[in-house]
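Researcher: Can you fold this with magnesium ion in place?
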Amino acid sequence: MGSIVESAKQDANGSLAEKKPTVVFVLGGPGCGKGTQCANIVEHFGYTHLSAGDLLRAEIKSGSENGTMIQNMIKEGKIVPSEVTIKLLQKAMEESGNDKFLIDGFPRNEENRAAFEEVTKIEPAFVLFFDCAEEEMERRLLSRNQGREDDNIETIRKRFKVFLESSLPVVEYYDSKGKVRKIDAARPIGEVFESVKAIVAPQNEKVKGYGRVLSLEESEDCDIVHLRSMFEGK
Ligand code: ADP
Ligand code: C5P
Ligand code: MG
């Protein structure tokens, strides 16, 4: 994977890895509701939402030299080379000023996953996986109405195939590391979000409330450490 990783590494300014941001990968088939649920999570929990697909579509619109290549890949439901997508993600993370990210629709294949880890040295805190049947995802995509060039039945079928062959193995990889939180995404939006909240809220408390103190004390005894830091006026 040498050259992809090396060139992306050279472009990284180092500050991102030093910040050790919290990253949650949001995965699931096309149309399962990743973007919809991420918008809710942002509102409730203060994450920055980065959709790899949205970043790629913005890159096409910006008239970048990669624009035509990206457009052709999206039209065919293919996965854009990791070098391109990772650079866009890195730039967006650095510019956001936040330290908590929902990375939606990435990693989409093994190459995406390995290159991101290698370049950024970031491992996800956990992976939200939205599970939904193809027929339901197809219905949702065909009525999405956002004028997307890939929301037609021919491209949708190709995207489903890529999801099964290339993206599900990434979910299985993280599952083997105990990082996957699977959610039944076939239910109404509000019900799905109740399940999302039950997963994200406890993790968020860890990140927000005790991160600083714990890193100083290297202790898991949150209450005692927290009380002590209050007592000492920190
Ligand atoms: P993804 O980002 O995973 O491709 P979106 O969030 O864009 O999916 O959702 C695809 C379409 O389905 C959108 O039109 C959205 O409004 C709709 N949608 C999302 N979640 C649900 C749900 N739980 N039930 C019904 N429709 C949904
Ligand atoms: O996630 P979303 O449905 O917006 O992705 C749309 C398309 O963008 C994908 O079908 C694929 O062509 C491209 N994409 C990619 N690599 C990613 C995410 C999206 O090539 N990691
Ligand atoms: Mg989306």
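Model: Folded with magnesium ion in place. The chain has one domain: 2-209.
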